[in-house]
């Protein structure tokens, strides 16, 4: 059975924050993505990537505000959320920043298999020694789920922004 995107804001069976057409529009205006995005198949790759990106955003991000209804399938739309200019975001819509973040994350997922055991990176290593220099790290350190570009896009509407500001001050 083929996956179908349901991007109905507040829908009880919604599974995605943006449509395929919205993702295309986003990638047309983004550098370095159209070749990879165009090469992927709509039904076999892009649709699952957009749905998976939505699921990972909902599972990985602690959003501020609260869900608009108890019956909505996804964590957005939300209420009591204000944009950068202090204007309240309507509690019946999926805001553009989230559609863009979903499309960006889907692009990342097309190029990176998060389920693969990536032994090439040094995340999670316990000890590294080069000559007289030795470095020990918590072996439970994990590579973050959200790529930096997506975390940047959602930071104002989640606790990610609050954590980043604290880290910048250190």
Please provide a written account of the structure.
The protein is 40% helix and 7% strand. It is mostly helical. The chain has one domain (20-169). The strands form two sheets. Strands 1-2 form a two-stranded antiparallel sheet. The longest helix has 19 residues, at 42-60. The protein starts with 19 loop residues before the first helix and ends with a helix. The model is unreliable at 163-170 (pLDDT under 50).
Topology summary:
Layout: H1 20-28, H2 34-39, H3 42-60, E1 66-67, E2 78-79, H4 96-111, E3 127-130, E4 133-136, H5 148-154, H6 159-169
Antiparallel strand pairs: 1-2, 3-4
Helix pairs in contact: 1-4, 3-4, 4-5
Features:
170 residues, mainly alpha, two-stranded antiparallel ribbon, 4 strands, 40% helix, globular, disordered C terminus
